[in-house]
Write a structure and sequence with these properties.
Length: 88
Amino acid sequence: MNNEPNNLAKSNELKQQITELQRKKKQLENETKRRASWEKRRARTKRLIETGALAEKYFALEDLSVEERENIFRTFAEFVKSKRQPKG
């Protein structure tokens, strides 16, 4: 019967360790999600900047308003979509 308090203390210690490890696991999972989200945003931003630079280069858009640029893109949208190669 002397082992009962000792076993109870060990059990409580193990429970605390499990709880702490579960907390750390959740924290690491959240950090991984944040990093993945950040990487996706970073890649999208890079793609948008590159696309905008190419659009300005080939369509001389620097001096046009947003509405004028949109009209140009709308004019060519269906043509470009029809000429794209399917992925895969």
